[in-house]
Amino acid sequence: MELHGVAQALLILSAVAALGLALGQIQVAGVRLGVGGVLFSGIAFGHFGAHMDPQMMMFAREFGLVLFVYAIGVSVGPGFFQAFKRDGLTMNLLALSVVLLGTLVAVALHLFGGLPLAAALGTLAGAVTNTPSLAAGQQVLNQLGAEGAGTILGQAYAIAYPFGIMGILLTMLTIRFAFRIDPKEAARSFAAARDKDFQALETVNVEVRNPAVVGCRLRDLDELKEMGIVLSRMLHDGNQSVIQADDVLAEGDVVLAVGPRGKLARLNRLIGPTAAIDLKEMQSKDVVWERMVVTRSEVLGKTLGELDLRGSHGAVISRVNRGGHELVPDGALKLQFGDAVTVVAEPATMPHMAKVLGNRSKALQETQMVPIFVGIALGMVLGSLPITLPGLPSAVKLGLAGGPLIVAILLSRMGHVGPVVWFMTPAANHVMRDLGITLFLAAVGVKSGAGFVDTLVHGDGLTWMAGGVAVTLVPLLTVALVGTLLVKMNYLSLCGILAGSMTDPPALAFAQGMTSSEAPILSYATVYPVVMVFRVIAPQVVALLLWAA
């Protein structure tokens, strides 16, 4: 039986992926290669003669990369901007330090190590696993009229590339074992630090005792509007009811409030002391509560103030849980797909509220394919747009990795556009992410394996590899030590920074494999856009300066 074309490519890619993933599960000294095993499996297949149509190989590599980075962008989008505001400057400075140090090492290899300029640029691109950097170097050398430089640059790239991936994994492991870091403890530390950004909501029963508010309607208490506290129910003359804006406070009434602890203390000073009874514990046939999920497109993006559920339906949303965090349901909060809300209302109102909000739990398990393909298409458009920067001979592009990543972050942050919801179930996201990185590594491995050993042992292959090792390890170890000892960066966040500084999806996948924490993904996405631009700029600047010299 002889296979060709698509069938041959699928057979080889499947075999490489299956063997590589199996190798990645083998644990040695508590460490597993994970998805990184696919790269080594591919190199072995390529070395022993496995080959496929070049166009099929390129498609598998690029399509896999797009799937991976798009899934990453969707998962980090909701928390990206908050993470950027908190630690974005520090993270980007560390990542750009890796770029700068690696570039300086490549320049030193050319000036003092005897590497041709093209080999130095190829080593720089391969050692940081950045294909757009390779393309930028080839383009600028062609513009400068360096004949044959493109071939040398490509060979140096191929030689340096495998250790570029291995080097960052070694750096992560070196820091982990040298400082005896437990990834699970790092994940818990990250979660605790992240939770500080969200004020925990508490409930308090407040008895009306302040003479200044007795006889006042709730809507007339301006101080109450400023507190960001939700009043959900009231006990008046022994009867419990859903509280309304026109309700008049009487002495001895008890109101149930939900909000951050500090603001609840202000409510005590405004209305009265904490009551001895708990309205939630009292049996009432007039007031019930129910947890619902927001799935109806008509309410997405609307604020609770715009919906005015209290005035229009006599219902109150007392809590909103989004991504595991409770948010204060004030009038300015916009509802997003998948929000879990606590509704307080009369029993007869609950079925209507379910229709208003959607409350289709099954919708959270359904994968919506149209938004995925629309998002990928928009990412392709953004990645292909030329970005002109002063002083450079040609425009730079975000490419197949940068465009989809940024679009996915922005779309998932927006939540929806009209009826189109930019939501992906966790299961679908994981499948898309794992399939993408596996295809990418399998194709890269097979391509690198063909002629790899021959190039390595003959000519200048070993010299180029040694240079690539220096370009990979010197910046990574330096910045990793600075981040650990001086900046005191969380280990998992530091791994994400290192992976992002190398624009290295396999390294990110490896870091993710340590725990289920979002820390590596968030820091990777925080530094990736800026790093990608500088990775493309660096070889062009070096070529212009050194060629002129």
Q: Indicate the structural class.
A: alpha+beta
The pLDDT mean sits at 81
**Total number of strands:** 12
Q: How does the overall form come out from the CA principal axes?
A: elongated
Short structural summary:
This protein is α+β, with helices and mostly antiparallel strands and 549 residues long. Helices cover 60% and strands 10% of the residues.
Could you please describe the fold and organization of this structure?
By secondary structure, the chain is of the alpha+beta class. The protein folds into 2 domains: 374 residues; 169 residues, 2-Layer Sandwich (Alpha-Beta Plaits), CATH 3.30.70. The strands form 4 sheets. The protein has a 4-stranded antiparallel beta sheet, with helices on one face. The chain has a 4-stranded antiparallel beta sheet with strand order 7-10-8-9, with helices on one face. A two-stranded antiparallel ribbon has the order 1-2. The radius of gyration is 29 Å and the shape is elongated. The model has no long low-confidence stretch (mean pLDDT 81).
Topology:
Layout: H1 5-24, E1 27-28, E2 31-32, H2 37-47, H3 54-112, H4 117-127, H5 131-143, H6 149-178, H7 183-195, E3 201-207, H8 222-227, E4 230-236, E5 239-242, E6 254-260, H9 261-271, E7 288-293, H10 304-307, H11 309-313, E8 316-322, E9 325-327, E10 340-345, H12 350-357, H13 369-384, H14 399-414, E11 416-417, E12 420-421, H15 426-449, H16 452-457, H17 461-486, H18 491-501, H19 505-514, H20 519-548
Antiparallel strand pairs: 1-2, 3-6, 4-5, 4-6, 7-10, 8-9, 8-10, 11-12
